[in-house]
Amino acid sequence: MSLSPIVIKVGGALLEDEQAALSLLTSVGEVMKTRPVIIVHGGGPLVETLMAALNLPSQKIDGLRVTPDEHMPYICGTLAGSANKSLCAFAIRSGLTPVGLSLLDGGMVSCEPLDEKYGAVGVPAANDPTLLKSLTSQSLLPVVSSIGSSDSGRLLNINADQAATVIAQLVDGELLLLSNVKGVLDGNKQLIAELNQQQIDSLVDDGVITDGMKVKTDAALLAAASLGRPVTIASWDANINTILNKDTGTRVAP
Ligand SMILES: Nc1ncnc2c1ncn2[C@@H]1O[C@H](COP(=O)(O)OP(=O)(O)O)[C@@H](O)[C@H]1O
Ligand SMILES: CC(=O)N[C@@H](CCC(=O)OP(=O)(O)O)C(=O)O
């Protein structure tokens, strides 16, 4: 396999849509016949559900979850535990052989705290691709959650779009950020096929790109610049080959 790997980020809401998850993983299996694939996943909605059940208030600032260290056992249990294993189980049902991992495994990504106002939220940086390359060379499917660690061993919660960006940097991969929307929508809710930094800035200024999509377009711009190739924001309902053929989704230019 000489083509560059595809890094597919899926938002946590996918885990609540069995048909969409199985159909996406079936199309991942097709792509894996010719190119390595690495999945990075979120789990925001699962975290919300657990925190509400535990009566622990959880708030986001600029799309990032404020995470006191004492919340980390729940966040870690949800993202690296139930979300990761549910996605691996969907992959097994789809005939694939997943290996569930977190950012901190095999020294692949190093993380540092962002700012104490966010608590245990980290900024990830690409470190060592050896483990991922070894897995993909054996036709295994790495499924990576966005839990990281600082060098001093503090567990950190990383936004999954940022996690996927560093994994794409690590393996020089093509990045697809898949979510529950067709891509970036304009003020009239129409799909925008291509965007550059200037256009994104003006959509943010106009209040058209907000919340989680702002985090996503920031991650896409950073990734596109560092990879030197466009990053795609699209729906997980679309076939991967349709997305790779640029027939749907939004391409964010470097
Ligand atoms: N301009 C926009 N186009 C599309 N979605 C947008 C836009 N602005 C804000 N959003 C919101 O961003 C959401 C996607 O971000 P997020 O919920 O964080 O996704 P994920 O959990 O898959 O990473 C959409 O469901 C939508 O509610
Ligand atoms: C720091 C931070 O915001 N972490 C995210 C990690 C999960 C995530 O990003 O999940 P989605 O992709 O489903 O939104 C969180 O706690 O929700």
Automatic annotation (TrEMBL):
Enzyme class, first EC level, given as a word: transferase
GO cellular component, one term: cytoplasm
UniProt GO BP: L-arginine biosynthetic process via ornithine
Binding of substrate, residues: 43-44, 65, 157
Domain Aspartate/glutamate/uridylate kinase residue range list: 6-235
GO molecular-function term, one example from the UniProt record: acetylglutamate kinase activity
Keyword Acyltransferase: no
TM segment ranges: none
Pathway where this protein functions: Amino-acid biosynthesis; L-arginine biosynthesis; N(2)-acetyl-L-ornithine from L-glutamate: step 2/4
Keywords: Amino-acid biosynthesis, Arginine biosynthesis, ATP-binding, Cytoplasm, Kinase, Nucleotide-binding, Transferase
SUPFAM superfamilies: Carbamate kinase-like
One Pfam match: AA_kinase
Superkingdom, natural source: Bacteria
ATP-binding among keywords: yes
Compartments in which it is found: Cytoplasm
Record-annotated site: Transition state stabilizer: 9, 216
EC number: 2.7.2.8
Catalytic reaction list: N-acetyl-L-glutamate + ATP = N-acetyl-L-glutamyl 5-phosphate + ADP
UniProt cross-references to HAMAP family, sorted A to Z: ArgB
Family: Belongs to the acetylglutamate kinase family. ArgB subfamily.
Described function: Catalyzes the ATP-dependent phosphorylation of N-acetyl-L-glutamate.
Protein's name in the database: Acetylglutamate kinase
Lineage: Bacteria, Pseudomonadati, Pseudomonadota, Gammaproteobacteria, Alteromonadales
